[in-house]
Amino acid sequence: MLNRAQDQNTTITEHLRGGEGDVIMHHLMKAEDSCGKFKMCALLTLEPGCTIGEHSHMPDAEFCWLLEGELVIADGGEEHTVHPGDAWMCGDGASHYTKNCSDKKAVFLAIVAN
């Protein structure tokens, strides 16, 4: 399934998962166009101070890859600072959150797979 740039859309969600600020989501592929494989496939932008609140993934899993900026994430109950090129995943009932504690925007790919 080809999803051309002009057919993609961008949404803004306030307080995503109980977090702070607005999360800008550029949807690369609609769930219904993913052969049942993805719940979400998007580029997410978090401005400084923006967070995605703690949430778990079961039975799905989320893969993330940081493209720009810096984020603080929870992984395995510990906080880690991630940098461009770093990737992380959450699944099997684990929970995680994401925070932009820097003074620059952060952009990452997020894929939630069934």
Strand content is: over 45%
SSE string, helices as H and strands as E: EEEEEEEEEE
Number of helices: 0
Rg over C-alpha atoms, rounded to the nearest angstrom: 14 Å
Q: For the report, how would you describe the main beta sheet?
A: 6 strands, antiparallel
User: Taking all residues together, what is the mean pLDDT?
Assistant: 95
- Please give the number of β-strands: 10
Structural class label: mainly beta
N- and C-termini, Cα separation: 18 Å
Walk me through the structure.
This protein has 114 residues and is mainly beta. The protein contains no helices and 10 strands. A 6-stranded antiparallel sheet has the order 1-2-3-10-5-8, with no helix packed on it. Strands 4-9-6-7 form a 4-stranded antiparallel sheet, with no helix packed on it. Strand 6 and strand 7 form a beta hairpin. The mean pLDDT is 95.
